[in-house]
Amino acid sequence: MLKNWLKIAFINYRKNWLSTIINILGLSVGLCVFLLIFIHLQDERSYEQHNPNKDNIYFIENGNVSFGIMPSSSYPELTVSKEKFSEIEDYAIANSWNYYKTRLIAGKRSAYTSSCRASGSYFDFFPFERIAGSFNNAISDDNKMALSEETAKSLFGDEYQNCIGKTVKIDDSQNKEYVITAVYKNPTENSVFKPGFIMKHPDIGKQNNSQWTNYSYIGYFKIKPGTDIQNLEKKLSDQQAAQEKILSEKWGEKYDEKNTAKVYLTPISKMKLEAKSEGVEKGDKKSIMILLSLSALILLLSGINLINLKTAQASQRAKEVGVRKVVGSTKSKLVLQFLLETFMICFVAYIVAFAMVELLLPTYNKFLNKEIKLNDPSLFIYTGLLLIVFSLISGLIPALYLSNFKPINTLKGNFARSRHGIWLRNSILTLQLIISSFFIICSLIIHNQVNYMMNKDLGFKGDQVINIQFKKTDWQNDYNSKKYVRLKNEVSKIAGVEDITGSINSIGMGFSNASVVRNALDTLKSVENVIVGGIDYNYFKFYKIKFASGRDMDLRFASDTISGAIANETFIKKMGWNQNQALGKELITGWEEKGHNYKIIGIVKDFYMTGMDKPIEPMVFFNYDRNWAKNNMGNLQIKISGNDINGTLERIKEFWTTKAEPGYPYDYEFVDKQFAKTFEKFQKQQTLFTTLNIVVLVIALLGLFALSSLLIEQRLKDVAIKKTLGADEKTIVWDLTKRFLLICVIAVLISMPFGYYAMNEWLKDFAYRIDMPVWPYVLSLFLLLILTFVVVSFKAYRATKINLVKYLKYE
């Protein structure tokens, strides 16, 4: 019996070779897209799964309505909570900067690597494989350091396992030696905890550890099993709110109960995707889930093609079903036979899809800046189950449909006129076109929004400006401000350099300092989460940022250097002032003590610094050469002439690698490109969605072509009769295509509310967004109508060229 079924299956595959190829190709592409997104999701979920304590260690985040949620904690929040709440076994601090490299020196060797400033409990929370030394008290003192195996090899060569007790230096002007206490091996599994070296956090044990609102520590709690996490979050939130209330009363402010503090706890096994804030190297869960849903739609579209083509072929197999029922075959056997045929197509598509994934994965990894590998056994289990379920769902409908034929009708040849068959095919075709229209609408709106972001006036001119970040921190030689002045003077002499400026907060790189800023005369008036930081005196002129009122800083006035400040329009509005009222007002930032006031001398027009998907932040700027700002001046921003850009870049590189920071890797970035990275995520969404849209259209149109071919072939006798009666080609083509066009119109109209809802939700991520346009919906209708007409009319036109005798000789 099975052998007979296989013979029948291959005969039908060969007979309908075009639809068979389209089914396999469509399913392969759909499954390939789904697998690529799915393995990306699985890769993101795999972070920290190797940690044996993953279910008991929680990442701590703090927030309120005003400044949102931060991935950081205060030191007393960690220490006091451990003593106060019995549910908490211990805490750990792990301030990692994987993106920031530090140079270590041991003799004539050096290593340029990432670091982690941590508390002594670090190795209890994040167990590493020990290579040498001991983890006990490994970072208990300021002069101790633990090295990763890679870093130790770079510094000590093949004898790296014998480096315990030896010393290394950090390449800064402190010239301090650190004793190596342990060598560890970073996990091979996915983890955000892979530092090149670990040492004690420099602030632990100092006076600022008593500040409840100094959110400078990436903290983790080890919590006892069985703890009610929501209840613990409430206790921690109440404790933090109480401390903020005390601080408000200290400043004479009325505490806002609606703006109360909130503490969030997320298991480290889920923090890569589930963190409430930007987390620690957080993944973009929302985008992944959107793409996964869209890839599932593509897979559904492929299944629809399969169902549609199988049901369209029903008339060809109607007599076969009728004969088999007459000779005694049961309905269940017929269903099994047709399911087997569907499974064979799906299995071949499954193999082809994995081959496509293997070929596309390197390109996909490059696009995502990841190293995803196709080596997870669970992936094959999940996809194997998906194959079975998909085969059952997509095969069961046509199987039941074909097995329900009545022998007496099929043997008489009446099936082709069945209203039930026509209704089913039309319904499935409508669903197919709804999905296609949905993708077209969404793709056009996403493209429009990203273009709006790219073409919007940013408020600054960053063309031909490069940003070079200092790698080596100058802690003792009169702070980084002296280094900045020295390098600025020397680089300005290089041919092709037009101008140089600098700032603590760099455009496109986020902000390093934010604070509460108060009216010095009325501290009840304040703005939270204000970007504050030093700039060079020519900063606004350099970037051609316009002034709304007042003036720029002037070095001829000592008061400008000592206390002059420039605010942006957003800050002024949040303080409740107009531009004239703001001039001359004195401010106190959260970083300063009372008496260290800043006086507003100018107001600049709003400009973007951190990205365009968020509102413009309130900002206050001052001259960099004062107080805490001196040691945070860590970059040069250089405007180069357009006459010899490449030559100028080479000359700057030669100076930087030989005189400025020899021994360090040299890298720079154009400010425009640097800022473009702030919406790179959305550009990638645009690229992925456009790619998916093309895939959807190809699958849909291939399916439409195959379906229209089968349906038109069933009407060739009607075409022959009409031609015999004198109908012209245009009339016949229109008669064969108008039903498809009507279905297309209905499908687009149904897809419009779904597209509107989806895009309205997506646009909510943007503080500055386009108004919902109408033209993508109209264009989607016309585009699908044109494509449908072209695809169907091509086959319809060929139908008008048939040999009339062939189809009329039996009439």
TrEMBL record:
<feature type="transmembrane region" description="Helical">
    <location>
        <begin position="379"/>
        <end position="402"/>
    </location>
</feature>
<feature type="transmembrane region" description="Helical">
    <location>
        <begin position="21"/>
        <end position="41"/>
    </location>
</feature>
<feature type="domain" description="ABC3 transporter permease C-terminal">
    <location>
        <begin position="293"/>
        <end position="406"/>
    </location>
</feature>
<dbReference type="Pfam" id="PF12704">
    <property type="entry name" value="MacB_PCD"/>
</dbReference>
<feature type="transmembrane region" description="Helical">
    <location>
        <begin position="288"/>
        <end position="309"/>
    </location>
</feature>
<feature type="domain" description="MacB-like periplasmic core">
    <location>
        <begin position="20"/>
        <end position="237"/>
    </location>
</feature>
<keyword id="KW-0472">Membrane</keyword>
<feature type="transmembrane region" description="Helical">
    <location>
        <begin position="423"/>
        <end position="446"/>
    </location>
</feature>
<feature type="transmembrane region" description="Helical">
    <location>
        <begin position="774"/>
        <end position="797"/>
    </location>
</feature>
<keyword id="KW-1133">Transmembrane helix</keyword>
<dbReference type="InterPro" id="IPR025857">
    <property type="entry name" value="MacB_PCD"/>
</dbReference>
<dbReference type="InterPro" id="IPR003838">
    <property type="entry name" value="ABC3_permease_C"/>
</dbReference>
<feature type="transmembrane region" description="Helical">
    <location>
        <begin position="740"/>
        <end position="759"/>
    </location>
</feature>
<feature type="domain" description="MacB-like periplasmic core">
    <location>
        <begin position="432"/>
        <end position="628"/>
    </location>
</feature>
<dbReference type="Pfam" id="PF02687">
    <property type="entry name" value="FtsX"/>
</dbReference>
<feature type="transmembrane region" description="Helical">
    <location>
        <begin position="334"/>
        <end position="359"/>
    </location>
</feature>
<feature type="domain" description="ABC3 transporter permease C-terminal">
    <location>
        <begin position="693"/>
        <end position="803"/>
    </location>
</feature>
<comment type="similarity">
    <text>Belongs to the ABC-4 integral membrane protein family.</text>
</comment>
<dbReference type="InterPro" id="IPR050250">
    <property type="entry name" value="Macrolide_Exporter_MacB"/>
</dbReference>
<dbReference type="GO" id="GO:0005886">
    <property type="term" value="C:plasma membrane"/>
</dbReference>
<keyword id="KW-0812">Transmembrane</keyword>
<protein>
    <submittedName>
        <fullName>Putative ABC transport system permease protein</fullName>
    </submittedName>
</protein>
<keyword id="KW-1003">Cell membrane</keyword>
<dbReference type="GO" id="GO:0022857">
    <property type="term" value="F:transmembrane transporter activity"/>
</dbReference>
<feature type="transmembrane region" description="Helical">
    <location>
        <begin position="688"/>
        <end position="712"/>
    </location>
</feature>
